[in-house]
Amino acid sequence: MTFVRIGGVAHHVTAEGSGPVCVLSAGLALSWFDWDPVVPLLAPHRTVVRFDRPGHGLSAPAAVPPTAAGEADRIAGVLDALGLPGPVTVVGHSIAGFHAEAFARLHPARTAALVLVDSSVEERPRPARTTAASRALGAALCAAGMPAALGPLVRRAAVRHDRAHADLVRRVYRTSRVLRGALLENARYGAVAAELLALRDRHPLPPGLPVTVLAAPDGSARWARRQRALARRLGAHYEAAVPSGHLVMRDRPDAVARAVLNPGRS
Hints:
This protein is an alpha/beta fold and about 270 residues long. The chain has helices at about 40, 70-80, 95-105, 130-145, 145-160, 165-175, 175-185, 190-200, 220-235, 250, 255-260, and strands at about 1-5, 10-15, 20-25, 45-50, 90-95, 110-115, 210-215, 235-240. It contains 11 helices and 8 strands. It has an 8-stranded mixed beta sheet, with helices on both faces. The longest helix has 14 residues, at about 70-80. The protein is globular, with a radius of gyration of 17 Å.
């Protein structure tokens, strides 16, 4: 188990395997172990880096609210701390798709490929003006002992057919920091989405960058259309992981591994 300090905050990171580097970042309230099914498929071919954002997994609470640029710099900070300058394949799931795309735009020389795994999509985001409400809610829920009482149950309810080890789930989701971290990221969701839209205008993706949009439509034609539109916007290869729920890395680890090992290709 490794911890590195970035911006004064202790981040839990793992690195395994060998070869070119890929860095995996999971969605809201998820943890490093949610990538477990993918790692055995990648480690023979890639150095696989996973990390927990502040308030997630085993990392310490956030010092400041998240921003798109800040999360891009966080990925760069993780790689710097591990002595991995790049270029790397950056993989973002759900809300972390915003962060991965921001990294590719703000650190183009360090980006070998971009893979968006059922990434969040916001065409017209509405930024919240403050995080005060989420902080107050988190404080009230934690004071009532909700994380310890219900945290693992909420995790199990949210992640269908959860195969994560029960001890890990209890260790992570009984803590107040994970509840507070999830609420903070959720409160900043619209602001981060709006910032990414602005970055698209000012910071184009590197020419010829292999980009894959790996979607999980799960029967939703509207979600499939939005994911295809994202792929067109980024000049990306589109692929649907079927069957799969939102946690594609758990339902279809083979599809995620294929996207990493053959980015931007059919």
